[in-house]
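Sequence in, structure out. Go.
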Amino acid sequence: MKKNITDYKVKDKRVIIRCDLNVPIKDGVITDDTRIKASVETIEHLIYGGAKVIVLSHLGRVKEEQDKLTNSLRPVAKRLSELLNKEVKFIPYTRGPEVETAINSMTPGDIIMLENTRFEDLNGKLESGCDPELSKYWASLGEIFVNDAFGTLHRKHASNVGIASILPSALGFLVKEEVEKITSALDNPERPLVIMLGGAKVSDKIGVIENAVKIADKVLIAGGMHYTFYKTMGYEVGLSIVDEESIDFCKNILSTYKDKIVLPEDIVVASSMTESASTRLATKETISKNDIGVDIGVATQNQFKSILSNANTIIWNGPIGVFEIAKFSLGTRKIVETLSNCKAKIVVGGGDTIAALNKFGFSNKKAHISTGGGASLEMLEGKELPGLKVITDK
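Output:
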């Protein structure tokens, strides 16, 4: 068991907290502050405990010098100040005398935020490569490290694994809850456990499927992925997306776990990927060579609803249709409605999946909506997360 934030006395201590403040910003304005709000509880705990809080985070992709112009954390610091009703002093550097002077002048309860950690990637990927010297430098700024960035827990970066390998470390409230909820659903589920997987390519989720069929009672596969399964079974899939490299994998999974895998009974096919496309309902036997599969059909909506409604634990990762186009969104809408009314323990992960929940008014307040797509996906694969493994044990 890993230490969490309540296992340390933080009064007068310099506490470095790694948050996931990677929020969408357009023209300098934050368009969704969900991830900022998610770490407020942990930061407030540190403030009220009398810590000197040093916030680290990444933002966006930083591959060349001009990316700095659109990926500064300054707007994030301003929004965090508003949420905390307390000044968050922004330091526009990732290291150097300005950083050290600001930290040395802190008093208990103060908060500073350093500039985007990925600015360090412009000098040889020092952040994402977990550079030892950068790790030591950041660690030297604090006395305790708290990881509250679940979205980067699967990455071995200087700002998480690097610092935690040097300082006494703990999980923040956000990460603690994420790990507990997902681990519980995977390792100690109330059965039946149903795992629903979508997305485009089977190859992106081979590890997830391999683990899912071992631990779940039913695995529902939809989205672009199931057309590869259809082709494996010998059916025409038209112009639907197919992952040719995964044909053999699908064949083996179907032959070994045919009683667990559930594929759509019917689908909506379209003439093109546009709102103006003509559509029709088809079964796997009636797809023509010019059809594009875009959604699950009515029979499948009812089929999935029956299975999900009888589950006691549900894990969902990946879109089940092209829900971004209104004409192809009915299946996803119906699944969201079903999950809104389910009494099961529900865990949802993946940015596109969560976008679907938000778009169609998901209203199940007991569900756990994961803040980290990549991290939750690797947990579904049964992998050990580097950012979690390195945290100090109790």
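Check: The radius of gyration is 23 Å. The chain has two domains: 5-174, 181-380.
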